[in-house]
Amino acid sequence: MTAKRMAKAAPSGRGPAGKTPKAVAGSLVRAAEPAVEFGSPFNWCDSRCDRCAVTADCTVHAYSARLREGHILRGEDPDSMSSALQETEDALLSAMAQLTQMATKAGISPEEFEDDGSPAPEPVHISREAWRYLEAVLVVVRGPRKAPPATRPEPLGEAGAAACLISAKIARVEMPAVAADDEDADAIWYADSVPNLLLVESLEAQVSRIVSRVAAANSLPLEPFTCARAALHRSLRPLFDRMPDRAREELRLRIAARRAPSPFVVLDPLDPRQPDAPN
Ligand code: SF4
Which residues does 9 contact at the CB level (< 8 Å), separation at least 6? Predict the structure, then answer.
């Protein structure tokens, strides 16, 4: 049990759910007036920097650009598989170094990271539906892939990639939702889960449009996809019901000010604010 949870479990002088009076008062204020402050856009984007409106302020984009430049300076192809593998290895090593440093500071031995043989946790409810949804999309996407390239009707890769991202984002959203009694849960909910749910909603509408068109053009049965889609929507409903109206208003304002990442604001290839736009 973590120190936070142990503190919460202590009974004396505490209010509902083991919270201190100050924490209860704090949560009442939050319940009356929830702060809707989205976190950094790179946490709720589709990673399509090539068409994103917020590249100038994005640290992830700046980091990727530096990596790309490094490959070019070393005479490497920045788009090759070996460059991608090298970047992945460097990122993992750096993450492990940071984790070890944080663990040491917190008095945790690095040996505690090692696999203790426990089975991996089962995916939770919505993630399972998201996985079924992804499988249903891939069935439709793979069908026309067998056709010669010239006769492929739609941006199939885009639908497949968006469905993968939906699945990943739902897993990310669902974990804090499961741990809803954590002290940080409210902050995570508004800063990260809410914009990621809006991202899922946007991507799902895009996938659905493409899949419907591909299925119609290729006489493929759409029912497996529509069933998986309906099940996903049902499982997501409680999270969307919990979302404050002000979240949509916040997104609307950001879109109007072009302060939202791709896919909420998508730059035209000729837009001068586009990173790869011709001069
Ligand atoms: S898509 Fe936009 S927000 Fe996301 S990493 Fe790229 S520049 Fe940053």
Answer: 1, 18
